[in-house]
């Protein structure tokens, strides 16, 4: 169970990083600056994090307390 908790925590941490990149991208857009260097990694991180969450939550090894 301990490993499953850390796996979920790690993927949630990645999601938080992606959301931070989205916030920085929005700020750069508002300031009319070049924003692609934060937008592209943000989209990549959102997609990979959501795929990771779906794999983790559909895993048969996930304890019942985390579903």
Structure explained in plain terms:
By secondary structure, the chain is an all-alpha fold. The chain has one domain. 76% of the residues lie in helices and 0% in strands. The protein has helices at 2-30, 36-57. It is elongated and about 45 Å long.
Task: Give the helix/strand layout.
Elements: H1 2-30, H2 36-57
Helix pairs in contact: 1-2
Task: Write a compact overview of the structure shown.
With 67 residues, the protein is mainly α. The chain is 76% helix and 0% strand.
Keywords:
67 residues, mainly alpha, elongated
How many structurally independent domains?
Answer: 1
Poorly predicted regions = none
Mean pLDDT, rounded to whole units? 86
Q: In total, how many beta strands?
A: 0
| Secondary structure tally, helices | 2
- Strand percent estimate: under 5%
Q: What is the structural class?
A: mainly alpha
How many whole angstroms does the radius of gyration measure?
15 Å
Shape: elongated
Helix content: over 70%
SSE topology string: HH
Main β-sheet description? none
Distance between the termini: 12 Å
